[in-house]
Structure formats: structure tokens, C-alpha cells
Structure prediction request, 124 residues.
Amino acid sequence: MNKSVQARKQRKRLYNAPTHVKSRMVASHLSPELRKEFDRRSARVVAGDTVKVLRGDAEIVGVEGKVTKVDTQTGRIMVEGMTMPKADGTMEGRAVHASNVEIIKLDLKDAWRKARLQKKEVSS
Prediction:
């Protein structure tokens, strides 16, 4: 565990982290209703979850949509309905950092994820 306060060492740890650690870094807060239901504050974002953007540029704050893609390397997610124009005029998906969104509906098709979320204590 790296406990350095130096930003450069924290960035290095983030960039060089193994895949299973980077996967855990793509987590977002749950909505108040989901917090009560699952008795936890946050969960990992997966494609299929419905999220609401809480922070960022004025035009994207408040946008709700389904997550279409999760990039664990950068910690960013793509939300359907959020696009930005490219130089040639075509529209491209806009990436948002996972910490800037709130999960309002979970995709519980995966039985393992559903069981894991309903578990009260997580063993280390």
C-alpha cells in the first residue's frame, strides 16, 4: 500500500496499478434509494447501469442515461445520449469520470454481482 502524499507517486500508482485494482477505481456513489436497499454507499459502474451526471460542464450536469462503455484504464464511462461534436462535424460519445456520476438504477442481470451487492459484510 502506497501512502505517499506526493501527487506524482499517487499518479504513478494509479497508472501502473493491476487490472483488478483499476476495476475497483471505477466506482460511483449510489442514489439514496439504492443506499437504503443495499446498505452501502458506492458500487462499481458496469455497462447497463443507469447513471445521473452530478458534476462537470453545465450542459451535461443532470443528464441521465445508460452506461454504454466503461474504460478501466482511464476511469471514465460513456453514457448514451451524451455526445460532443468533432472537428469534421460528426458527433462522438463524451467520456465522464466515474466519480462525477451517481448510480440511480443498477443492472442486476449478473447473479454474482447481485449476490455481492446484497452482502452486508465484505471479507478482505
